[in-house]
TrEMBL record:
InterPro entries in alphabetical order: Homeodomain-like_sf, HTH-type_TetR-like_transc_reg, HTH_TetR, Repressor_TetR_C, Tet_transcr_reg_TetR-rel_C_sf
Keyword field contains Transcription regulation: yes
A Pfam family it matches: TetR_C_1
Gene3D superfamilies cross-referenced by the UniProt entry: Homeodomain-like, Tetracycline Repressor, domain 2
Segments of the chain annotated as binding DNA: 99-118
Boundaries of every HTH tetR-type domain copy: 76-136
Protein's name in the database: HTH tetR-type domain-containing protein
Keyword set, alphabetical order: DNA-binding, Transcription, Transcription regulation
Key word Magnesium present: no
PANTHER family recorded: HTH-TYPE TRANSCRIPTIONAL REGULATOR RUTR, TRANSCRIPTIONAL REGULATORY PROTEIN
Amino acid sequence: METCQVCGRELERSEVGRPRLYCSRACRSKAYRQRVAAPSTYTNTMHQAGGVVGGADAGVGGDGRGAGGAAGGAGGLTVVGIVGAAVALGDLEGVEAVSMRRIAERLGAGVMSLYRHVRSQVELVDLMVDQVFGERELPELDGWSGPGSWRAKLELSARMEWDVYRDHPWVARLVASTTRPPLAPNRMAYTDWRIRALEGTGLPFETMAQISFVLSTQVHGVALGLEAETDALRTSDLTRDEWTATRQDAVDQALRTRHLPMIARFGQPEYEASTPDRIFDFGLTRLLDGIAVLIPDEARAK
């Protein structure tokens, strides 16, 4: 039997989605506060100056500080260190806190010295998104040994992307645009992987590409709720349940002001159904059902 990672209480087995880690939102919120209060470690693939370097720079800690946790001087700045500091700031304080000035303060360097390594805020966003998606690389499709159907592969990719946003809620806002998304190779790899997962279904390439875009839009659209919940927790220190309790009088007033018969029927099951995880699970299943309708009968089971 699995137990809550915060309080140790036994957990009921979840039939859908990834295994549960916490017994309640209160424990999940406590775990989040503990996580962001501690230095983060980032040791994943980074895009750097026209190429890719594997792992963290040997002289720079994962939170963008020098080895041993001390802030590095301007002479020791690297792209890896700057981006690591930016991601750590986002995790700790939200994306609004990420600026060249704040990163420079974290690294003990001058603001202008950062621009010798990262040319603009736009490039910084690209690199930040690239790093966090690089933390969860999809498995190789060549020699694939996992579930064989296109549906299982798309679901796997969606749940891995959801985990990216679970780990870094602020990222959803950075990738919310599908027309001018960040140029992050590790995120682009998700699009490429999904299109390849649909090969053999008989769909035109354009349709396969659209399915990949729609799937990603669905995932990070719901993930925007994760960022809002994280920001609310950071600023008010109230869990979702606690905040809702404080708003009960306002809810009652709204029900007296307007005729809202469906809202009036809301109870605990409906409240639970509105959590980001439940909305994600429901939306993903319905989206995959819709994609299945597009695929010719002879290829649906492949």
